[in-house]
Amino acid sequence: MAISLTPAAANHVKSFLEQRGSGVALRLGVRTSGCSGMAYVLEFADVIEDTDVVFENLGVKVVIDPKSLVYLDGTELDYGKEGLNEGFKFNNPNVKDACGCGESFNV
Amino acid sequence: MALLQISEPGKSTDPHQHRFAAGIDLGTTNSLVASVRSGSADTLPDEQGRHLLPSVVRYTADGAPEVGQAAKLQAAHDPLNTIISVKRFMGRGVDDILTLGSMLPYEFIASESGMPLINTASGPRSPVQVSADILLELKRRTESTLGGDLSGVVITVPAYFDEAQRQATKDAGTLAGLKVLRLINEPTAAAVAYGLDRKADGVIAVYDLGGGTFDISILRLNQGVFEVLATAGDTALGGDDLDREIARWIMQQAGIGNAVDHALQRRLLDAACAAKEQLSEADEVELGVALDDGSQWHGSLSRQQMNELLEPLVRKTLAPCRRCLRDAGLRAGDITEVVMVGGSTRVPRVRSAVAEFFGREPLAEIDPDKVVAIGAAVQADMLVGNKPDEEMLLLDVIPLSLGIETMGGLTEKIVPRNTTIPVARAQEFTTFKDGQTAIALHVVQGERELVDDCRSLARFELRDIPPMTAGAARIRVTFQVDADGLLSVTALEQTSGAQAHIEVKPSYGLSDHEIESMLRASMESAGEDLQARRLREQQVEADRVLEALQSALQQDGDRLLDSQERAAIDAAAQALREVRDATDHQAIRRAVERVEAASAPYVERRMNASIQRAMAGHGVDEFK
């Protein structure tokens, strides 16, 4: 079971955490909603729950609850640009199909 | 796949339900837009990487308007259709604009509402429409950057903007298809960018030296509420003046006379501006300017030399600072934080002069060009719900008291100045004459006692009041100021439910100088105002007594009075009429008392007559 970050993603997470001035990790997860089943959760984490699984990647701590990990195992978090827009991307090998924009997905 | 941002804990949104928010600094010369992404606020650049959008719009006979740099480049060729500095016309009437100076190249025409329109190649355009075109360009940039539609924006306005100017700004936002969550004061936004709103209290000076204008504001923060204590400034002092001072020095050094053509002048100013910017970092710079005879002038300028050149201008900004402190009733030592805004505050000598004046190092870590937009973005992000709920919402206050005109041209203040908004205040009024069926309401803004000395904001009428004796109607007037400082007034006659309502729309506005002088005048003329108020009150009382007496005499004067009594009352009334228009309020009061004394037996007889009328035909038992 593993989650990884690209160097670009790791650098951005580090700088966002630094600018926020608080927070101990980056939380990834999934929840059921949206137009095609599941949706990604991407949040700052101020506390690490006892049940959380913790990964350390390029100096960035990533926490994830065990239920979400089933759907995200093997995911690589990337950071990219599309025109003026920029942000994080989930490269998730478990996804079978996704809605047009990829914001929600099925496994 | 879609690009995602990091949310606050528990604030992840559903797919396609992102709450995108932005803060907009709608400036006189340049505008900026900022947004909070992954928890950090920054301004958004366009495709060419430019953050600043020149606040310039050019209208052509065919096609969409050009906005920003493209329009600015055409300003010299097409001055009539290229609108610059439109912010100065927001919320102003045609008459106000004409007093702004005869330098304006535009053809103004008045619309029915009194709002000025500018004749352009694509037809008449109001300042609100021109501002909307600037906002539309920023909206387009923001939505393609964030990858979705905006849920709401916060737009900043100068602290001295009045109701009409604020309403015009909000209307421009709506016209551009934006949901304007709130307008906030520019100095307040700068303080928010530094997180000062999270402190319990403090007194903050915001020193804003832009390209062409200088503003100083003193804010008091009290339990999350920012109150503008005072503002001052100079509308014709900014970075451009610093450049001109350095350009003049180059001309002296290069031995150039005063007669330079436009192109050389431009080259000199560009060289001056570049030198000024480099000297913020370096101690000395090399300068080169191509002269008209084909030769090249070379020289060097040290930071020390530049400081000496700029000293008079830097000093010039300190006079308004002193005035602002005095108006706020504070000393420099009372200021707990100083915030720097505007590109010209990068000049080290400006910073050190401000630090010396206030006796503390100013906050300058955030890019002073962007700090206002960033503060607005932080507010917008909070207002759309991307922040944990425990974070406090920012409150603001109204800059000048709001009230209505009462009989005799007096101001009745309903919402006093520095009341925190949003606010709703109500007061009851009544009719002045018997059988009065309508009442004219005149909404005014200002601190003075007489309506003539305050600013008129709106007039409306409440009709269909059922005829009653004077003083019997109960008219509740409610003033409501929303979170943007926009005013709506409702009048309701309580017995009949007759109602009238008005929203203050932009027609006229006040300049910062006017607000400043209005505030000062109210303090200087406090004594005079008190005298004037007493006189007007007595005059109103005299009118009321005469009016009531007249109507009673018509009804039953002949029946209840003998000729001698009638003559005495008439004589007292005549004496009152004579002193009513003089300026001695005590004389009027004495005359009123004499009329009341002369008519006392008559009033008693009328009272008895009406009681008898009421009791006639009833048995004594009924009154037990």
Name the descriptors.
A: 107 residues; alpha+beta; 9 strands; 20% helix; globular; B: alpha+beta; 6-stranded mixed beta sheet; elongated
Detailed description of the structure:
The complex is a heterodimer of chains A (107) and B (624). Chain A contains 2 helices and 9 strands; from the N terminus they run βαββββαββββ. Chain A is of the alpha+beta class. In chain A, a hairpin with a 2-residue loop joins strand 6 and strand 7. Chain A is globular. The mean pLDDT of chain A is 85. With 624 residues, chain B is an alpha+beta fold. In chain B, strands 1, 2, 3, 4, 11 and 12 form a 6-stranded mixed sheet that branches. A 4-stranded mixed sheet of chain B has the order 15-14-13-18, with helices on both faces. In chain B, strands 21-20-24-25 form a 4-stranded antiparallel sheet. The longest helix of chain B is centred in the C-terminal third of the chain and has 35 residues. Chain B is elongated. The termini of chain B are far apart. In chain B, 44% of the residues are buried. About 1% of the residues of chain B have low confidence. The interface between A and B is medium-sized, with 37 and 28 residues.
Strand and helix map with partners:
The complex is a heterodimer of chains A (107) and B (624).
Chain A: E1 4-5, H1 7-20, E2 25-32, E3 38-45, E4 53-57, E5 60-64, H2 66-72, E6 76-82, E7 85-91, E8 97-98, E9 104-106
Chain B: E1 20-26, E2 30-37, E3 40-43, E4 53-54, E5 56-58, E6 66-67, H1 69-74, E7 82-84, H2 94-98, E8 108-110, E9 116-120, E10 123-125, H3 127-146, E11 150-157, H4 163-175, E12 180-185, H5 186-193, E13 201-209, E14 214-222, E15 225-234, H6 239-254, H7 262-278, E16 284-290, E17 296-302, H8 303-328, E18 337-341, H9 348-358, H10 371-383, E19 396-397, E20 402-406, E21 410-415, E22 420-421, E23 423-429, E24 439-445, E25 455-462, E26 475-481, E27 487-493, E28 499-503, H11 512-524, H12 526-560, H13 563-580, H14 585-598, H15 600-615
Parallel strand pairs in B: 1-11, 11-12, 13-18
Antiparallel strand pairs in B: 1-2, 2-3, 2-4, 5-6, 5-7, 8-9, 9-10, 13-14, 14-15, 16-17, 19-22, 20-21, 20-24, 23-26, 24-25, 26-27, 27-28
Helix pairs in contact in B: 3-4, 5-10, 6-7, 6-8, 8-9, 12-13, 12-14, 13-14
